[in-house]
Write a structure and sequence with these properties.
The protein contains twelve helices and no strands. The chain is an all-alpha fold. Helix 9 runs parallel beside helix 11. The protein is elongated, with a radius of gyration of 30 Å.
């Protein structure tokens, strides 16, 4: 009996010692896994250079979670905006931009956050079929385009000298033309159904909110037709004079743009 107790005590001591070794090993693994902040950041940079944005997001998120007040925390937050966008996560990119604006209003990359917020607003609500087949976006829901137009306009107002201003101006050319075309598609739809007031409202929106666009003359002609149908002949004559004075074309500058919405390209944030 005493010998049994002796062996039992030996076994218990062995189990305790083995458990201690296992726990020490686990703790050692955790210390190895807990990498320094700069290692995460450098890893993220390498992954983004290799266009591995999915893995880059993991490294940048680790910095945000483990070192929220560290040396690279704010820079990582700005680069998350870019990484999300390039990885096709437009909603996450937009949210990351808004978060950066809220938390870092004086950061050197604040202009980048405003810029990318507008870019992500447009792309985040586009359907897969539009992406694949490049259908006429003027016939689709463009609520995202209108939001992007407003946000990019705000960006240019706040940061007219930003290095990203040329990119924003290029995209605004595309958006203004798209919004104008969309409004006039609706106006022509109402014209066909003799809903002249609704058609007039759409065409006037283009004239008042998107002046000098590629669709200005088209909008004026719809307004003229609506005035005639509604019996506003004096107003109709005024519109005819404007059309005649412009020789049937009010376009003063090219609305063409080399930017292709379907090509997912965006500048990366500056290093600070």
């Amino acid at each position: 009996m005493s010998q049994f107790i002796k062996y039992s005590r030996f076994h218990v001591a062995a189990i305790i010692a083995l458990s201690a070794i296992i726990m020490t090993g686990c703790n050692s693994d955790e210390q190895v896994m807990e990498r320094p902040e700069k290692v995460y950041y450098d890893t993220a940079q390498r992954r983004m250079k290799a266009n591995n944005f999915f893995s880059a997001i993991e490294s940048l998120q680790a910095i945000e979670a483990r070192y929220p007040f560290g040396q690279y925390a704010e820079q990582a937050q700005s680069e998350l905006i870019y990484a999300y966008y390039m990885n096709g996560e437009d909603e996450a990119s937009h949210e990351a931009a808004e978060k950066f604006i809220r938390l870092n209003p004086r950061h050197p990359n604040i202009d980048y956050a405003y810029f990318m917020r507008g870019i992500a607003s447009y792309t985040r609500d586009k359907g897969m079929f539009a992406r694949i087949f490049k259908s006429d976006l003027s016939n689709r829901d463009i609520s995202g385009a209108k939001q992007a137009f407003g946000e990019l306009s705000e960006f240019l107002t706040r940061f007219p000298q930003s290095q990203y201003a040329p990119y924003a101006s290029q995209r605004l050319i595309f958006l203004r033309s798209l919004i104008a075309k969309n409004e006039l598609v609706a106006a022509e739809y109402y014209l066909q159904r003799k809903a002249y007031v609704a058609a007039l409202r759409r065409a006037k929106y283009v004239i008042e909110n998107i002046p000098n666009s590629s669709e200005t003359m088209r909008a004026l002609k719809i307004i003229r037709e609506c005035y005639e149908a509604l019996g506003y002949f004096e107003l109709m004559e005024d519109i005819e004079i404007v059309i005649k004075d412009n020789g049937g074309s009010v376009i003063k500058k090219s609305e063409s743009s080399s930017w292709n919405f379907f090509s997912r390209k965006a500048p990366a944030p500056s290093k600070n």
